[in-house]
UniProtKB/TrEMBL annotation:
UniProt source species: Penicillium atrosanguineum
Compositional bias segments (type: Basic and acidic residues): 196-237, 266-296
Protein name in the entry: Uncharacterized protein
Domain of life, source organism: Eukaryota
Chain segments carrying region Disordered: 196-296
Annotated Basic residues bias: 238-252
Length: 341
């Protein structure tokens, strides 16, 4: 599976890196160091030269600079045409801008050198004073040698520099080709990775859809199962309620029957106890009556005997009192008789 970081970190190199230090190490130093910035105007040609050439390439005479300034106007229009074409090709084939402007500079320099040489020859012929109407072959040859000598010297000086510059451009082209191949390979790998990512994403989405469908089916089955369980529970609850109600009713009936039986038994026991109590009380009353009668008889007999004893005692007391009264009377009479005497 492709990691997201590799796909996110992959970018096309739309703007080249600053390879000026590497250029100086390989092809010599420069008179001054400039900061890499966008070069898109004609007044930046000198800075572009300082980036693309060595110090020896900047040795120009004042005459050559003047000639360059004069000839610069002559190829402004094709320069802008080539510049626009290069920018269009840059957007199409994604060439590094450093190599593009290097190639443009070499083309502009070549055109400038050819124009300078041609203008120099024309200027020599134009400035030469006509001494005579007939010019000998020696004069022409001498003038040609005079014109050719500085040009050959200049070409001899520039040939090694042009060769080194061309080698540097070729090396840079090779590097650009290698980089382009690497970028194409990376782009193809990125496209493959993107396709693989899209395929894996589609597979993941399909798997997710299948999982979602299975989840929905499982939820529906779980819901139906829960509803069936709830229905069975409700039916069981209803049956349990009915059974409990019938059981409570039967229990209540049994309790009522047991209570009625217990009441009947209690009533019978109470009646039996009451009958026994009544019989016992009656027997007790009869026994008490018999005891009372016996006691009454005994009391009557005792009263009768007591009365008889009292009567006897009274009779005895009366007799004794009478005897005492009689004896007293007799004693009183004798006392009286004795007093009288």
């Amino acid at each position: 599976m492709i990691e997201g970081s590799e796909a996110e970190e992959f970018y096309y190199e739309l703007w080249p890196k600053d390879n000026s230090e590497e250029w100086v190490e390989r092809f010599g130093s420069r008179p001054y160091k400039v900061k890499w910035r966008q070069v898109g105007h004609s007044n930046d040609i000198t800075e572009l030269r300082s980036l693309m050439t060595s110090t020896e390439w900047h040795v120009f005479s004042s005459e050559q600079l003047k000639q360059f300034e004069k000839q610069k106007v002559g190829f402004i229009k094709p320069t802008y045409t080539i510049l626009l074409l290069s920018l269009f090709l840059l957007a199409r084939i994604k060439l590094p801008i450093l190599i593009l402007f290097g190639s443009l500079y070499s083309l502009f320099d070549k055109i400038g050198r050819e124009n300078n040489a041609t203008n120099g020859e024309k200027r020599i012929f134009e400035t030469a004073e006509p001494t005579s109407t007939v010019i000998s072959l020696e004069d022409i040859h001498t003038e040609q040698e005079t014109v050719k000598r500085p040009r050959d010297e200049l070409e001899a000086k520039r040939t090694p520099l042009d060769k080194a510059h061309q080698e540097a451009i070729n090396n840079l082209k090779d590097e650009v080709t290698a980089k382009r191949k690497a970028l194409d390979k990376a782009h193809q790998e990125a496209a493959k990775k993107a396709k693989r990512t899209a395929l894996e994403k589609a597979q993941q989405e399909a798997a997710k859809r299948v999982k979602d469908e299975e989840k929905a089916k499982r939820k529906a089955l779980d819901k139906a199962h829960q509803e069936a369980i709830k229905k069975v529970k409700d039916e069981a609850k209803t049956k349990r309620k009915t059974l409990n109600k019938a059981q409570k009713k039967a229990t209540r009936k049994l309790k009522d029957e047991a209570r009625a039986k217990r009441k009947a038994c209690n009533r019978a026991e109470k009646d039996e106890k009451k009958a026994k109590k009544t019989a016992l009380e009656k027997a007790q009353q009869e026994a008490a009556k018999r005891v009372k009668d016996e006691e009454k008889v005994k009391r009557k007999a005792l009263d009768k005997a007591y009365q008889e004893a009292i009567n006897n005692l009274k009779d005895e007391v009366t007799a004794k009192r009478k005897a005492l009264d009689k004896a007293h009377q007799e004693a009183a009479k004798r006392l009286k008789d004795s007093r009288i005497r």
